[in-house]
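Give me C-alpha cells for this 215-residue protein.
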Amino acid sequence: MRYRMARWHVGLVLWVDDPQDAGALDEAIAAVRSAAGRSALVARASATSRWIWLSGEAVPDPHHVEKDLAAADEVRAALGRPGRGLEGFRSSHQDALAAQALVIRLGSDRRFTAYADVELIDALTKDRPGARRFVINTLGPLAEADTALRQALLTYVQCGFSTTRAAANLYAHRNTVERRVSRANELSAVKVEDNPTHVAAALLVLDIAPDIVTG
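Here you go.
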C-alpha cells in the first residue's frame, strides 16, 4: 500500500449529506493528497463518506488540512488528533469518528471539526438533555441572546481575558468587544469571573449546537 506506519498520522473522515454530492469527495481527497510531504491512505466507508489517514515525518498541521478542504463546499470533515505509529494510526481514526458523530448527534452544520477542539463538548453532550440543562443553568438569558455577545465572551475567555487580543481575533474595535463582554456577563447566570471554565464550556456547546436550548 506504500503507506508507512512508523510515522505521524492524522485520521480524517470526509462525508457529504446529500448522496448527489458524492462526486465532491473525490475532489476533496485529491486536494488533501496534493499537499507536499504527506502520504495518504483512503478507504471507502460508504457511498457518502471516506476514511483517510495522512502521514508524515512531522506532525500534520490540522490548519493546513482545513485550508486544503476550503474549496469543497459540499464536503464536511472531521479530524482526529495526531498520533505516531500503529497506535496513533488507530487512535486518530477513532477521534475523527467521534468528531463526526458529535456533529451529526448535535445537528451541527459545521464543515470542519477537529476533535481536539471539541473533546470536552463530546463528553458534555453524550446526554443531550443534560447538556441542555447545563447550558441553561450556566448561561441563563445569555443562552438565547445575540450570537455576537456570546462569541465576544467566548473569545475573551479563550484569549486569556484580554480584550485587546479578543478584538484582534474578532476583527472588531476593542471598545466594541468590551461592551459586548460586559453585556454578555450581565446576562449570564454564572459570571465569567466566578467560573470561567463552565461559562466557556457552555458557550462552546452553543457554538457547535446553537439549537440545543430551543430544540
